[in-house]
Amino acid sequence: MHSIYHERLTSKQKRKRWQKIIDEYRESGLSQSHFAKAQGLKPEQLSYYYRQLKDNGLSTTLTTAATFIPIALKDTVPVPVASSFILQINNNLQLTIPNQFDANSLSRLLQVLEGKHVNLTL
């Protein structure tokens, strides 16, 4: 629990103390209100110093947390896509089916090959 109410601090000490509190708040994962209450602080104070430190660029945690690092991408090699696939039915029959096949037509063909009677309407 932080006791900041009864101590006389210089502005530098105060800023350092609040920086530590803000860092602890950010690491806690709690809401500002819950963290403040758990630490015996007023939620308004935590909110005020959070904004002050963030707006004045004094919080190293806040200013470096969203830094992006550029990366260089190497040339990529396209993955070849098969233009067809082979469907092996028993040992006697092999079908080569293009990638752009019609599923309904293939289904009807398989039913015919399995010996089922299919009503084909063209």
Can you characterise this structure?
By secondary structure, the chain is mainly alpha-helical. The chain has 2 domains: 54 residues; 46 residues, no CATH class. 45% of the residues lie in helices and 10% in strands. It has 5 helices and 2 strands. Strands 1-2 form a two-stranded antiparallel sheet. Strand 1 and strand 2 form a beta hairpin. Helix 1 crosses helix 3 and helix 2 packs across helix 3. The termini are far apart. About 4% of the residues have low confidence.
Overview features:
122 residues; mainly alpha
What is the straight-line distance between the termini?
81 Å
Strand content range? 5-15%
Q: Summarize the main sheet.
A: 2 strands, antiparallel
Please report the number of helical segments. 5
Number of discrete domains: 2
Shape category: elongated
Mean pLDDT metric: 78
Quaternary status = single chain
Short characterization:
This protein has helices at 11-28, 32-39, 43-55, 60-64, 103-113, and strands at residues 84-89, 93-98. It has 122 residues and is mainly alpha-helical. The protein has a two-stranded antiparallel ribbon.
SSE order and pairing:
Blueprint (H helix, E strand, L loop, with lengths): L10 H18 L3 H8 L3 H13 L4 H5 L19 E6 L3 E6 L4 H11 L9
Antiparallel strand pairs: 1-2
Helix pairs in contact: 1-3, 2-3
